[in-house]
Design goal:
Helices cover about 40% and strands about 20% of the residues. The chain is α/β, with parallel strands linked by helices and about 400 residues long. A five-stranded mixed beta sheet has the order 6-5-4-7-8, sandwiched between helices. The chain has a five-stranded mixed beta sheet with strand order 11-10-9-12-13, with helices on both faces. A three-stranded antiparallel beta sheet has the order 1-3-2. The radius of gyration is 23 Å and the shape is globular.
Amino acid sequence: MQTPGSQSSLHRANLERVVRAVRLAGSLTQAEIARSTGLSAATVSNIVRELKDGGTVEVTDTSAGGRRARSVSLSGDAGIVIGVDFGHTHLRVAVGNLAHQVLAEESAPLDVDASWADGFDRAEALVGELIAGIGVGLDKVIGVGLGVPGPIDVESGTLGSTAILPGWAGINPRQELSQRLGVPVYVDNDANLGALGELVWGSGRGVKDLAYIKVASGVGAGLVINGQIYRGPGGTAGEIGHITLDESGPVCRCGNRGCLETFAAARYVLPLLQSTHGPELTMERVVELAREGDPGCRRVIADVGRHVGSGVANLCNVLNPSRVVLGGSLAEAGELILAPIRESVGRYAIPSAARQLSVLTGSLGGRAEVLGALALVLSEMGDSTLLADSPSLKLLPSVR
């Protein structure tokens, strides 16, 4: 029997460290793997050779710093992952492989608030269409990442606020989709997935501490601390939309008055302009008009930016992130909203925290959440299955 301190167990642990590093990054050079894992260059070289022979990784020639290098990624045949993102008005599904390549993606309008059953029916159908389109079956799916527009209760797995999706009360989204597809499902709220998407593929690359602020039908934040999503013990960390700005302000859907959301979310902002711009006005149209110079739309966006900046300043004072990434429909306004956010941060945040902070728009747009759902699977799945599927490695003991 192999003991935890045996040579074979140590070898297995090193294999898993290398696979984990590559899985989380998508692709790394062997030198980057050595730095990430703390293993020697010689050990990494031997392990990569073994993993390549076993079909777990692929190695391609590349360059790093002007020098020849070898890029390591997980095999494209190792399996696929699926991302499903429910928004209040849309459904997005993406299929990717373990090398962080998106193989297929599609979105469709959907009134998610109306019926949870209709939403899951459409998601199930769209998943089937996409994987059939790339010529694979559900047996190749390692896991599904699922995003919903509300906080997930950590203990029960249900949506933590019935005020956000009243038609979903009592529904366990992870369990529902897992039963339909027959594969493991990992679930999180849309703001956390937006943070993961931007961290892995977008404006958050290269940092370990960031906040992703999503301003849409609501206002939420995904918090990344030391490279990991911070959810809090109850799963409600990042509800920045319910920071109180004015105790005498409008009543929020949470029951309090003057929450940030009542000054920034679309449902509260659009009525300010609809009397002059028409009842069919959308936030996307507000941004478009503002970019064309419309004074009313510019003023409203600037006001929203200052309010959001107050919330960001509070985050700076408590968590001191190095980067804030703005997502949602208002992010398309660019500097029209970023400038007032920075102005409020400079006014209300501790100077040292404000100096270290960069505020950017997300680079993934509306794809941030569905790509974050892919990243969720890639971050949560274990490495033992990948190694067990390799003929030359399956006899090694698993290290827990």
